Amino acid sequence: MKKLFKILKTLSANMTWKMFRALVSKPVLLIPTIWGTIESFLFSEINFDESSSGRGIPNAFRHACWNLLIAKNCAVVTSEENAIHLAKFTTDLHEECFVNDDFDRKMDLHNN
């Protein structure tokens, strides 16, 4: 829990507001998005021995899987086009809020 608060403290007020608005604007899509996030971490852990949080193939796999699973899960409650848009928006917003170094950020956005 301490780690979560430490991460949240790094967000600017503008980014916090942007994330909050995104989360509450479509509450019916929140659960499928969270579930897609959990599934992407699980699939990455199953398929790779190393962590998916660093650089390399496991991280690229997790990002691609993350987008796919968010879109797949959200397509159950909205159109496929809206689900794809939401997946890209969510994962790109994550990169905007939790900034990596330039190379990692560009690669994550590319994988999204």
Write up what this structure looks like.
The chain has 112 residues and is mainly alpha-helical. The protein has one domain. The protein has six helices and no strands. Helix 2 packs antiparallel against helix 5 and helix 3 runs antiparallel to helix 4. The mean pLDDT is 80.
Please mark out the parts with pLDDT under 50 across 5 or more consecutive residues, or reply none.
Answer: none
Note the beta-strand portion.
under 5%
Anisotropy-based shape: globular
Task: Give the C-alpha Rg.
Answer: 14 Å
Whole-number average pLDDT? 80
Q: Give the topology string: H per helix, E per strand.
A: HHHHHH
| Main beta sheet | none
Structural class: mainly alpha
Terminal-residue CA separation? 27 Å
Kindly state the number of beta strands.
0
What percent of residues adopt helix (DSSP H or I)?
over 70%
Total domain count: 1
H/I helix tally: 6
